[in-house]
Amino acid sequence: MRIEQETINEIREKNDILDVVSEYVKLEKRGRNYIGLCPFHDEKTPSFSVSEDKQICHCFGCKKGGNVFQFIQEIKGVSFIDAVSELGEKVNIHVEKQQTAPTEGMVDDHIKMIDMHELMANNFHYILKHTEEGEAALNYLRSRGFTDELINDRKIGYAPNQPKFTHDFLEKNGYDAVLSYEAGLLSRNDETFDYYDRFRDRIMFPLLNFQGKTVGFSGRTYTDQSPKYLNSPETPIFQKRKMLYNIDRARKFIRQNDEVILLEGFMDVIKSSEADIKQVVATMGTALSKEHIVMVKKLASNVTLLYDGDFAGQEAAINVGKTLLNEGLNVYVVNLPKQMDPDDYITQNGNEAFKSFVDGQKQSYVAFKAQHLYYANENNDLKHEQHLEELVQDINLVRSEFLRKKVLQQVADLYKVDVNSLKNRLTPNIVQNNADYDYIVPEFKEKKVDKIGRAEQALLKHFMNHKQLFLEYHSRINQEDFTSLNNRVIFSRLNGYYKNNDAFNISDFSSYIEDHHIMESVMYLDSLLLNDEPESEEMEDYIRIISPNEREEQTIEYLNEQLNYAIRAGDKDLQSKYLQEIVQYNRNRM
Known about the structure:
This protein has about 600 residues and is an alpha+beta fold. It is built from 27 helices and 18 strands.
């Protein structure tokens, strides 16, 4: 008997772990987390931590904790089903139980969805470039300044004006219509359940994830269809709140420049990139999400907003800029001429002039906002007073001391007030810590491990960060390849977890871990600061280091090192394994 996963998820989401734990433990806020005396063992110094963000708790003393269900299991000594049932009653959800087998095939389905998109991207591109049907769309692109080199580089394509072209092509290649629909490539008549193409007679722009895999499309009309852009729907592999267009290409340049340039649309990104501005990304027609901000913060400390020069673009820059400023980022704005977007500027002035303009016009967000507010209410002193108070709060968040002084002077000059009077209104020490990342347990100390141990940690961390990486690489290694028992268990549990979940969530994953010490290893991995978008070469290196099947012939020094590690860890199985390998190594040399 098992409870439906959908019900478990709903109950967990409606029971905030902070509220539940607070019924048993007095908690005080410390930074991003809450701490208190552990309810599971006697202690004088609080070592029990609750993360509201991650919906998980952990004791650094006795190691007990987990998600909200595991907390109730531990505190009340009840089964998982009883814990779910009890928390369900708290939120008026009756627990239904049913006899079913676990969901299978989820991992394979997601790989197939990506394969479908890759297949269709190649097909659409061929149709655009090499068929009579795509000729009108190709001519339109060329008239808009798209060169053949750019079209090939971005693999831009054309979806024919046929109701079942994609449907039939995928079916011929062995893909099921239901899965094609779930992948967002087909639409469905809800009355007849007939499947047909989602994209027809549109120029197709592939949308790639950070690994450079096609996970969706944006279809642009060239014949005044409505809407102008038709994007893929939300699917297991395409979620707009987690997507930044061009991140797969831009991340290298973002790191080099320590700057993300954020634009409004992917067409602006393509044109800006062609103008040799490479650190450019855009959201997919959605507001900037928490996931986007986390992604940006992991890549750079500076964000430049390059939005349209109309009033809507300026308002968007002010709203987004404030959000980013509150997150501890350095924010700048490039203010384009009125009624111009990047494409307009490039068309009128050329790539070189556009790059020069962008490079030379990065204004502090607060200075930009001050000018916008001042000239929108030039003769309204009441508004000026209100805006000054708001601007002072913004200046408090400016991280750079140089910029803070400069902006103070700019605002004082603009509003014709004494700079010292503004300075006196600042709140000391309010500037946020740039290292304020979303990790549950900053108290974790770095563990000393050897080269293989570091590779295991990095590989598992990337597997936890990105399901797609797990799907691509997990078959290349075996559970037994891991030298750490905890890492073996985590690897094994990830396989089961990803069969039923689209993305890693530490609170959800904790239900797959029975041992508190292994759960602490999971939390340690979760706290590691690593490159969030590893290159393929990096992943291959980890595989080569970990997997004996792909590792170069092992030296006696390596085997002795691993034997000593196993002895220190008290792992009898590993000791036996490496003793046998040493014996075999010596035999081979005779």
